[in-house]
Amino acid sequence: MSTSLALLLGNRFASELPELALPWQAEEAPAPQVLALNEALAAELGLDPEALRGPDGLGLLTGTVLPTGATPVAQAYAGHQFGGYAPRLGDGRALLLGELTDGEGRLRDVHLKGSGRTPFARGGDGRAAVGPMLREYVMSEAMHGLGVPTTRSLAVLATGRDVQRETVLPGAVLTRVASSHLRVGTFQFAASTGDLALLRRLADHAIERHYPAAAAAEHPHRALLDAVATAQADLVAQWLLLGFVHGVMNTDNMTISGETIDYGPCAFMEAYEPATVFSSIDRGGRYAYGNQPLIAQWNLARLAETLLPLLAEDQDAAVAIAMEALSGFRQRHDATYAAGLPAKLGLPAGLDDEIASGLSEEWLKILHVNHVDWTSGFRTLGAAARGDAEPLRGLVLDLVAVDEWLARWQALDPDAALMDRTNPVYIPRNHLVEEALDAATAGDLAPFERLVDVVRHPYEERSGLERYATPAPDDFGHYVTYCGT
Ligand code: AMP
Ligand code: MG
Predict the structure, then answer these.
(1) Residue 252 among the catalytic residues
(2) Are the CB atoms for 142 and 455 separated by under 8 Å?
(3) With b meaning 16 or more CB within 10 Å and e meaning fewer, what string describes 278-287?
(4) Residues 10-68: pLDDT tens digits?
(5) Which of 96, 112, 120 to mutate to test the pocket of ligand 1 (most atoms within 8 A of CB)?
């Protein structure tokens, strides 16, 4: 491997938790080609983008040529999928290459998705198609730009191999970077082995990597549960404030770190509707926009169950501690959301709670009843704070209601600069994402590259980009996304 790529890939997960790590190799990629390379992230990781484009880089990013000492593993995990328990999921088409230390001294996982079948593949082919991998790339970059904790995308490479889905599609491998890939499902798997020492090792590994302060607490494992609950409470509140629907919040898709992971059937809501669902298989609306806090709490209950033997000697005492953590989740979530919404309305801090929540609720009702696009509704309200209410009025049918609301809101002297920092202009709108992925699948990467560039700076309005700030045309229809792509 060339000196510019002589990266030190550690194997902490594999060596500390061998019961959860199955050494495995990526499959050959017949004709690897870089489709997307995140140069800013490469720099953060101390990797030379030019070298990543060279032969060793292509080898690294497909998992086929690895630095000496690297021990790629498929990670074991379990998970509740749409409420049903699957005891053995694991990386069916993914590999953890190892961890590296970034420029700020943080440990980051380098992980491949689409790198071939592993013993966890069950009926799957172990592969991924170009479209869904570029989708994860653009969605995760958008989330990062929006300031939401997320896994990152370092690169997408075409493999040169076709994959069979409903049609034949070009295959790809995504290189994902995360602060770890520990999931609620990792704890479920460890707990199911009945090996308490393994569970304790996993919990201590999670504390060291994500919540070092918990190690000094009187009860480190209680502190771990509380810290995960806090991180997830804040994460889901941020999703709601941005109109994000994850779409497949199975326990194997919920991280211990509090980073958003697994951009499968996710999408940003346009017209405000709490029941919004995008996933083709989510018929009951389990993972609908407005249901996400409840589901996150349900998932945390599954995490808490696994931790019971570590929380207290006595089972009843352990259950009481777990229940407390779960109610702490709800309180924290509600508080973060209740602070975030008035900020999006530019309301001054310290405003009477009842006035703030009353105005917020009435605003949401206006958006809902009038089917206003979530993102443009808030952003045009920022323009109203600067004296131009016409763009907003153009989105609303019930002008009497909105004018009455605006008058009361204006009297509070809303902070337009705060609104510009909390209300994005650009999100990866579903019709634009589809357009970019269709073009990329057909060989034209230009629309994808433009979209990535736009969503990386979501709060900064730029002229010429109006198209990216506009909801889907009516003929785009109801948007549906698919899992297991
Ligand atoms: P996901 O829907 O991506 O969260 O994946 C759920 C589970 O299915 C994980 O265990 C994946 O590794 C596995 N999986 C998804 N797609 C494939 C595939 N094409 N081949 C093998 N395993 C897969
Ligand atoms: Mg997953």
Answers:
(1) yes
(2) yes
(3) bbebbeeebb
(4) 999 999 999 999 999 999 999 999 999 999 999 999 999 999 999 999 999 999 999 88
(5) 120
